[in-house]
Design a protein that fits this description.
Layout (H helix, E strand, L loop, with lengths): L2 E12 L2 E6 L2 E6 L12 E7 L7 H9 L10
Antiparallel strand pairs: 1-2, 1-4, 2-3
């Protein structure tokens, strides 16, 4: 499998989202996908690899939502 690795600049972090710059292109990702300790002004190396799909994504969704009673979330 081929992996593509690219360095991106962390321009801003706000409300759990990171705005990243790849040259002139800006895009956002959840901060949870980035390494611990990431902060504005850092350079981060991102890597992506194509992987096979899970055997049955619908089955996984059903299993994850099986104990969800629905309705509003109660804190």
């Amino acid at each position: 499998m081929t992996t593509r690795t690219t360095a991106v600049f962390v321009d801003a972090i706000e409300s759990g989202r990171a705005r990243l710059l790849l040259g002139e292109t800006a895009f956002e990702l959840p901060v949870a996908l980035l390494p611990d300790g990431v902060r504005e002004g850092c350079w981060v190396e991102l890597a992506a690899t194509i992987v096979p799909a899970p055997s049955d994504p619908d089955q996984r969704r059903r299993r994850m939502g099986g104990d969800d009673p629905g309705g509003p979330i109660r804190l």
